[in-house]
Each structure stands twice: as structure tokens, then as C-alpha cells.
Amino acid sequence: MVKRLIVVASTALVAAAPAHGAAPPTSARAYYVVDATTGEVLAQKHANEQVPIASITKLMTVIVAMKSHLLPSDVVTVHREVAAVGESSIDLKVGQRITSADLLEGALIQSANDAADALADHYGPGESRFVARMNGEARRLGLTRTHFVRPDGLDAPGHVSTARDVTRLAEYAMRLPVVRNLVDRRVATIGNGRTLHTWDDLLGQFRGLDGVKTGHTGAAGWCQVAHVRRDGLDVYATILGSPTRGARNADLAALLRWAVSIERPAWVVAPHRVYARVPTAFGRPAVPLVAQRGIMRPVRTDRPLTERLTTSSSATLPVHRGDRLGRIRVYSGNRLIAQQPLVAARSASTAGLGDRLGFYAGRTFSHVGAWFT
Fold first, then answer.
1. Domain end: 229, 261, 293, which one?
2. CA angle, 298 as apex, 254 and 213 as ends, to 5°?
């Protein structure tokens, strides 16, 4: 069956919107903003530069602990090295027994270093083995510019990642229910009665934000990876190396506001729309083609979309509803964002003997008439 290519350039797939310009300036060392649905990178700055990431590290710590057959009811005994770690903590004491559930909450909500170290010490077993597994998991996830030295993210030579890798790490972590259920909590109380407080200042303040992780050390500065789901959009943004906590919050909020302003969910392949009509034999009506299913995608409001249709030059009878007779591809710039088969919207039966005779008779009279004109 002969195919034909129809190219339709269209700007009408997305309603016209005012230009929003480039991403807002930030004081951060690096950042990365991506649409999680399409994978389109919306903005980036030094996204592949290796820098310290502080307590964002704890996302990997929790991932590896969960892969160690962790049960929330597991009881962990605190050793001296764990109790001695400084900075943010849940004040673990030597010999204290605490559940893994409490340690997970401490690591992800309070960003407690002793909680992360206790998980590594117990599920390594031993910190060095656990860190080796963290690096193995980084390789498995394709985090090619990430290397861990500690499970807590405290400054250490060679403990680095990138804004791009951190974002990928957060996307993977958010697939785990235990992570999703903890990182959007601002306050929690663990078994010993201690109240935990998040360091994520945008939780409850920025609509649709549900985590993911903050971090701060002297070498890393103020860092955060955030996830926002709202108005049909799904966006991750990572900001590393902000000079202050306030600058991190302001710059991250500005990037997120910009990201959700330049995209809009739209039917890039519309359900029930007739995209083309394919001729049939013996003068019977052309068969309308519709997409096999509609596709909605986040699209940039500042870019036109282009449709490319490939259809059959004619359809052999009979045609059954749902028969594939073409394909639609939709591009944003040069990037393919959706494709779908085009199928017959209705059936067309084989022409009967009377229809065929009438068709040929009509053609004959037409040709004869042409001789005398």
C-alpha cells in the first residue's frame, strides 16, 4: 500500500501566550530544572559540574537501606561512632535501641546525620561497606558524575555530585512510597517523643510542592532538590551552592514559578479529531482517520508545535473501523513529543456488483463526453 507524507505546520495546538523569557537569574552555583513527564530540560546552569551536595546525600542512604530488606520494625543499636557525629541530629546515644522507621524519619525530615549513619552502620554492615553500595547504586542509576564518601553528606574530599545527577536521584527516590510519604511532612514525632522539623521552608508555602530534600554544609552551601506537581504539570528543580538559606528559598521558588508558567498541559494528539481522509475504490466516500488514542502532554507556551502525518494514498476495501492507515507525529522544535497510529473512524464495506457497474459506467460516460468537448 503506497504511503504519502503530509506535513502540517501548526501553531494552533497551544493557545497563544505571552513570552516569558529566559529563566530568572540566581545566585546559586548550579541548578537544573526538568519536566518529569516529557524529560525536557527547561533550564540549567553548570548542571554537570561536580560539587558537594550535603544532606541531599541522604536520599541515596535511604534507597540503599531500603534495598537491604529494611523493615520499619527493625531495631538498630547505636554505636559510638554514630552517636559522635555532629551537626543536625536526633541526639542518638551510645547503646540506644531505635527502630528503622524512626531513623528513616530522622534522616528525611530532620536531615539528621546520626540517623543516616545509624542506617549505614546497621545495614552495611559497617559504614564503609554501605558507602560502597551507595556508589554501586549510583552507577546503576546512571549517576556518572556522583561519588559518595559518607552516608550523611558531611563535607569530605571526593564527596560530590551534580545538579543533573541529584535530580535523577530525586526522581528515582520519589518512586519509593516510604520516601514520598516522609518528604512532604513538616513535623513528625518519633518513638522517644522527640519532635522532628523539616528544613524545607517551601513545604506548605509553594503550591504543589511535596519535597524532596534540602542540604547545607560549609563547602556545599545551601542546597535543595524540589518536586512540584500542579495544574497537570510535573517538575523537578535542583539548586546547589546558594550563599544563604534565604537566597536558596527565593531562587528555587523563582525557578519553579517560571517553570510552571512556560508550560501548559495540552492535547497534542486530539481524541476524535479527523486528521485526514483516505480515498477508497469505486467512488465510495473517503475514510476519515482519527488517532488511536488522544495524548496530553505538557508543552511550552512559547513554542509552536508541528504535526507530521503519514497516510495511505488509498484504502483497499473492505475497511474495518480501527484499521491502521497512517501515523501522526508531533514535534516541539526538532524534538518528537508524541506519536500515534491513525486509524479508520468507521468501516467501509466492499463495493457490490451494482456499485462497481455504476462506477465503471459513470467513468465510461465521462470519458465519452470528454471526446466531444
1. 261
2. 45
DSSP string of 115-172, one letter each residue? HHHHHHHHHTTSHHHHHHHHHHHHHHTT-TT-B-S-SS----TT-BB-HHHHHHHHHH
Q: What is the pLDDT of residues 136-149, one digit of tens each?
A: 999 999 999 999 99
Q: Looking at the annotation, which residues are catalytic? A: 55, 58, 111
Peptide bond into 125 cis (omega under 30): yes
| Structural domain contains residue 162 | yes
Residue type, 228: V
135 shares its domain with 42? yes
The answer to whether residue 21 is domain-embedded is no
One domain for residues 277 and 195: no
Question: How far is 30 from 316, CA to CA, in rounded Å?
Answer: 58
Residue 9 sits in the same domain as residue 94: no
Beta bridge partners, 10, equal 305
pLDDT (tens digit, 9 = 90+) per residue, 57-116?
999 999 999 999 999 999 999 999 999 998 899 999 999 999 999 999 999 999 999 999
323 assigned to some structural domain:
yes
Residues β-bridged to residue 307? 8, 330
- Does residue 202 belong to any structural domain of this protein? yes
> CATH number for the domain including 303?
2.60.410.10
Q: How many domains does the chain have?
A: 2
Distance CA 355, CA 284 (A): 9
- Give the containing element (helix H, strand E) for 227: strand 221-230
pTM of the model: 0.86
Same domain, residue pair 209 and 108: yes
Distances from the Cα of 100 to the Cαs of 185, 191, 199, 261, 320, in angstroms? 18, 11, 21, 40, 59
User: Which range of residues forms the domain containing residue 140?
Assistant: 30-261
How many CA within 13 A on the CB side of residue 26? Answer: 34
Residues 252 and 339 in one domain: no
Give me the count of residues in the chain: 373
209-246 burial code (b ≥16 CB/10 A, e <16): bbbbbbbbbeebbbbbbbbbbeeebbbbbbbbbbeeee
How big is the CA angle at 129 (ends 128 and 135), to the nearest 5 degrees?
90
Q: Measured between alpha carbons, how far is 230 from 221 in angstroms, rounded to an integer? A: 29
Domain identity same for 311 and 173: no
C-alpha cell at 186: 513538616
